[in-house]
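Sequence and structure are kept together here, with a separate record for every protein. An example record follows, reproduced without changes.
>
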Amino acid sequence: MHHIAKALVKLGNEVLYVSSSIEYNLKNAYDTNTIIKYINENVKVVDGVKIYQPLNVSYTNENTYYSYFDLVQYLLDKSKNDVEIIPYLPSQVNVIKALKGDFKVIYECVDDNTDLQYAFWGNKNNVVWEQELMDVSEAITTTATSLYLQRTSIEKRKNVYMSRNAVNEADFIVKDEKIPEDLKNIPEPRIVYTGAIFDWFDKELFYDVVKSNPDKSFVIIGFGEDEILNEKCNNVYMIGPKKHSELKNYLRNCQIGIIPFRDNLDLIVNCDPIKQYEYIACGLPVITTCMPESAMNKKYTFLANTKENFNKAIEKCLNLKVDLQEIKDFIAENSWNARAALICNIADGKINEEYRRRDLKKLGKI
C-alpha cells in the first residue's frame, strides 16, 4: 500500500492514507468533533503522503468512540478534488457503503481471502465482504494471475485488470558501499531471505537445504514467529528485521535470494512476492518454490521445492553471470510508478476494452 501511495504522489495526486486504528484512553470526557479535529491537526507527511491515524477513544474504559468512519467521511467532505477510494481489505466495504458523497472505488485485490487458516489478517466474513466490495467498485486490480482469472473467468467480471507487484530502482541504489556491520563477519556465499516468517514458510525444506550446504551462509532478515526457525544451525544467521531503506545494503552483499514458501497453500498460490522483485533489483538470482506467479516473466529465477532441486539451483546461481542491463529493463517494466499510472488511467477513464484484450493476450503468451 505504501509503495502505491508514494508512486501516486509522484504522478501529481493528493494522497490521504488512513491507517489502522489505535487505542487511546482519556481521563476526561470528550467531544467527537474534537477528536476528529485532533487527528486532522496531527497528520504526518511522508514522501508527500498525508498519513491520518484514527483513534479508538475510551473514557474510563467505557463508551469507546471509533473514529475511523467519521474520519474518512470528514476527509471526503473537505476534499475539493475528484475522490478515488482505494481499499485493500474486504472489511472496508462496510465503511464505503455507509459514506455519503461523490467518490469512486478501485479495489486492489492483493491476497486470496478464502484461505483463512494461514492468513493472519483473515476474517470468516471476508469472502462475503469481498464480493460486496467488488460489486461497488469502479474497477478491480489483481496482483496474481490466479486472482485475475478467478474474477474474470469464473465470476465473469468485466472491470478487472492485472497489476502485479513491483519495485522502484531508486529504492535500491546503493550510495554507501560499506557492508553492514552485522553482515560483515558472515562468510560468503550468503543466501538471503527477507520478510515475514509465518506458517507458510516451509521450514522443513529450508532446514534440509541448510544442512546439506554447511559451506554456505543462510541469512534471515525477517519478522514474525521466530520460533518457526528455532533449530540451531551454525550456518543460519538470524539478524532480525531491517528498515526498507536499509535492505539494499544487505541484499547487495548477498549472492542468492530465496523464497521457501509452502507452495501447496491457496494463500501462496495466489501471491506475487514483492521480495522477488527486490532480490532481482539488487542483481540477485532467485530460488523460489513452485508458485505460479514467481515463474511468470521473472528474470534469473529458478523453481525448486525439493532439497535436491534446491541444491542444484544454488550451484547454478553461484555460477551465473547477471546482465545488469536486463535487470534495468526488468525494473523499468515492473516499477511501482507504472502500477500507479495504471490506477490513474483507470480513474481517468483512459482504459478501454482493447486494453483488457491486450492484457489477456499477454497472459496467454506466458
